[in-house]
Design brief:
Two copies of one chain form a homodimer. By secondary structure, the first copy, chain A, is mainly alpha-helical. Chain A is built from seven helices and three strands; from the N terminus they run ααβααββααα. In chain A, strands 1-3-2 form a three-stranded antiparallel β-sheet. The longest helix of chain A is centred in the C-terminal third of the chain and has 29 residues, at 125-153. Chain A starts with a helix and ends with a helix. The structure holds a DNA duplex (30 and 30 nucleotides).
Chain lengths: 168, 168
DNA sequence: TTTAATTTTCAATAATTTTTGAAAGTTTGA
DNA sequence: TCAAACTTTCAAAAATTATTGAAAATTAAA
């Protein structure tokens, strides 16, 4: 397969993969494009290669920078800004875990606390089912939170070593 | 807080949580409603409590059953079908992991295999960057696949025991 | 400064996804 | 068998989300 064709397919696949995960398609495509580029790209490069508008590129690049998945780079002698993506996939995974935890899990934990106390007889089956469900979800989420924290802090070697051994 | 109010808030929260994860909001809301119900609900109950149409309820319940998150139950003397959700949150998590792995990770792995060989000089920086990126993503995905398999097979005790200890 | 290059914003528009609801299909009891 | 109860389907409509592109803002060279 030709390099350009393979790149194109990868960008498309990564885009649809991302959109399963609440990340918009274009954002994932730009990320994919930068992941497989051997040199930094300008906004114009991205516009051209993905055939999308300047505004769209700008907004999604900003979002990627916000996630710390992409960095602006200065190229001497160039007026334009250029962009590169973090290439270490373990680091990428840790960044995504960290961001999603912050944006989703932590608010959920806060919310669960806020509804854990309901009026009424604790022996009432309806009340009991509800409070037990919430308690279990809270326990689970706290555990997930801790586990994810450890993963975020861990490096690849820890992962491949300890965890892989554990999961033989 | 009153039980009904707490339930309503939980359903709304679970719905928006779900939609971050590529699960449609209504599907997540129906799941939430069943999670905190002490008795099975009929399609009419769901329609009424969530104020949504019959068709919508039907389609999303079918999807939930397909995911094995919800079961049909027969109530003697009743003509209608009723529905309950799996209440064990660890089991729920394992089901979701399993389904998403099947629907997303496995196709991605297949795809990565299909583009790993590109024409051209292996010393060409562009080719090298691409093949290395794909190889790394493949390695990562294979590792994730294995790890998730172990999690799917594990039970809660294993989780809380071994994994929690590991993650002190 | 001034001006040209570049980036950002955002209202309008387009694309996509979800929901509705009525008609068609199925099941069950009499 | 019939008919009422219930479930499923799916085209059209509504809601949501993403994209465009031109104008405004910013930046940097001269």
């Amino acid at each position: 397969m030709k390099l350009d064709e393979a790149k194109k397919q990868f960008v498309a696949a990564w885009g649809s993969f991302g959109s399963n995960w609440g990340i918009n398609r274009t954002m994932a495509q730009i990320h994919a494009l930068l992941l497989v580029s051997h040199e930094p790209l300008s906004a114009d490069d991205v516009m051209e290669q993905l055939a999308i508008s300047r505004g769209n590129v700008n907004m999604n690049l900003r979002e990627l920078i916000d996630w710390t998945l992409v960095d602006r780079v200065i190229i001497t002698g160039e007026r334009k800004e250029f962009f590169t993506a973090e290439k270490d996939i373990w680091k990428v995974a840790r960044i995504i875990v960290k961001e999603r935890k912050k944006r989703e899990l932590e608010p959920m934990l806060k919310f669960l606390d806020s509804i854990s106390e309901v009026d009424g007889d604790k022996n009432d089956k309806a009340v009991k089912t509800f409070t037990e469900a919430i308690e279990n979800i809270k326990k689970f989420s706290l555990q997930a939170d801790k586990t994810l924290d450890t993963i975020i802090k861990a490096d690849e070697n820890w992962f491949v070593g300890t965890l892989l051994k554990l999961f033989k």
